[in-house]
Request: fold
Amino acid sequence: MKKSLVLLLIINILGTFSYAQDFKGNVLDAKSGRILENVEVTDLNSGKTSFTNNRGEFEFDEIEFPVELEFKRIGYLRSVQTFQGNESPVKIFLQKEISQLSEVIVRSSNIPQEIRKIPASVSLISENELQRTDNFNLVQNFNYVPGIFVSQGALNTNKINIRGIGSRAQYSTNRIKAYIDGIPLTTAEGELTLDDFDPEYLDRIEIIKGPVSSAFGAGLGGAINLYTKDQTRDQRSVVADFSYGSFNTRKTRANINYVKDSLDLSFNYNQVKSDGYRENGEYDRISMLGSANLLNKKGNSWSFFFSYTNLKAYIPSSLNEDDFLNDPEKAAFTWYQAAGYESYTKNILGISYEHNFSPSLKNQTSIFYNSRDGYEPRPFDILDDERRSFGARTKFNYQTSIFNRSSEISFGAETMFEFYETGTYENLYEEAEERRSVPGDRLSLNEQDRNYLNLFAQLNIDLSSKLTAEAGLNFNTTAYDLEDRFNSEENNQSGDYRFEPVLSPRVGLSYEAFEGKNFYVSASHGFSTPTVAETLTPEGLINTDLKTETGWNYEIGFKGNWLNNRLYTELNLYSIQIRNLLVARRVRQDQYVGVNAGKADHNGIEFTSAYETVLSGDLVLRFFLNSSFNFFEFERFVDLGENYSGNTIPGVPEYMISPGTEVSYKNLSANINYQAFGEMALNDANSGYTDPYQLLNLKLDYYWNLSRKLDLHFNFGINNILDEKYASSIVTNAVGFGGSAPRYYYPGNPRNFFGGVRLNLNL
Reply:
């Protein structure tokens, strides 16, 4: 008995000490699964170091367990993992650090290539950058990108403009093409809403600035491409989190991932609710997103995406100057009395298949379906509309040689058929005893069915080891069928209408003058067709005389690496000349019509920089400085006898300067971001301007690893630390009616706080 006790005591004592053995593993890219060589692997206990070979393998002889290993490679996020010794050999997956912009392959281009070699201005928002703000609203992240400004009226009232294109749209984004995993999000008539998507479900966002019609069709402002997370590492995980912020804003989210061999499944549920900073500002949105990817043994892949959104968001609308300065929390009187709001149910479905015919020829084909059923009570009427669309996009890529020069050709087509029914009713809210909207007699009923076809082609060729050329061409035809179901025969405009076909070319050159440093020049054509809102008059009639808005973009730029790839800089100078300028003419309170009214010049300068360095083994510093300076004016613009030629285009800040710093130490990180925006003209006459403003924001994150399968993430942040009073959005060319002052201003949120907790469980 005594011998047994002694033996047991010896075993327990030995168990408290570490033991030694050989240990080996492989290091892979977390996205592509490809092997990574020259990864520095360090045993943090002993200081021993190993480097992965050309097969991605590393090995340690006689190291003591448990062991904490650090994995580092330029262009990838540092990773520290603990092992007990019974896992060997192991597979380690490193996440690419997208701030190393020059190494990133741009997927949204018809011919994917490194961002440094593309003769165009392309901005990226990484998964890490999407986490530097609160997680309530996706589009707020765009305001850190040079050349982009988001007018933020409320969680559901956001308007994106790229290089000033779309700044004069009234309440939503247009003239910008957008996709998620290759599935179109922009409607056939040019409208776009990105507010519905959960930023935490996305892997990254690629933004091509300026006319992109040679690749995507109608997109005078540019193209925004969203990509969901694509995992290659086997896992079964559940993520649950809750966030809370000022104005009783809360978000509940759950995400499930299942990755096994070549199958990748993901499902996301999230709900955002808020009382809002202003009266009549309540917001409630439920979203569900799902994606699936399947890779077969021949390297061909299937992918599936769906999104469901149900929204009800009240609208406080804009304020006049006196209320904006003295009572910014109030809603516009008529919108408050009518309890105006927007609500809709939206569905997006898409299936894609990528087939490799040979190592040099592949095809990607997608089919998609979108639907939206909306209802919007407004003081001047009640809008009831429904939209359904379906279509397909196919693209072939062929690698070849032309005149003994390495080349790649891409060609394909995209088409969409859209069925849009819109009707309006009287709003009898003034007759109601309580504060609400009451539908009255019908005012209009129209059905507008649109379809478009894009045929596109692109050629990239290496003219020398340092000089590459790019040429593209798109042919577009857009038509619509109008059925007026309400007006009498004398006003009935039912019939088939067609916009003139458009050819949109693009050419570009990129030259590597020094190692890792490229200069480029490009010229590209773009166009945008009028939206339904621009064609529809308040009387329910259609303005069939509107022309397609067109423009040419001329651009030169520099992209380069410095300090052993720790610093990336980019400088772009551009000039966009727009013809058949589509503008909104205000005709009544909160109502307008679209007119072709002249020409405009959008000239600007953009600067991007990103720096990253490891100050010590656990201390990492990241810094960015983005800025843009805008010189947008009407070249020739005469409307209703008023000559606005030479005036500044309203709705765009004269400049944006945004430096930011992220400091990471072990599991703790701090983001400090500053934004400075210049004044904005309020109207075409330039009779008034907003004041410049500055925003300072802070976010702290802490990751607590409880075990190999369970970790917690805490965050806390402050927006608008300086409590700046500013206009986050304006209604251009607002007009006062009945002696009232024009309502130009949407007040921005005052100082506000947010925080959250996330649980990540790996099963």
Summary: Residues 2-15 form the longest helix (14 residues). Confidence is low (pLDDT under 50) at residues 3-18. The chain has six helices and 46 strands. The radius of gyration is 28 Å.
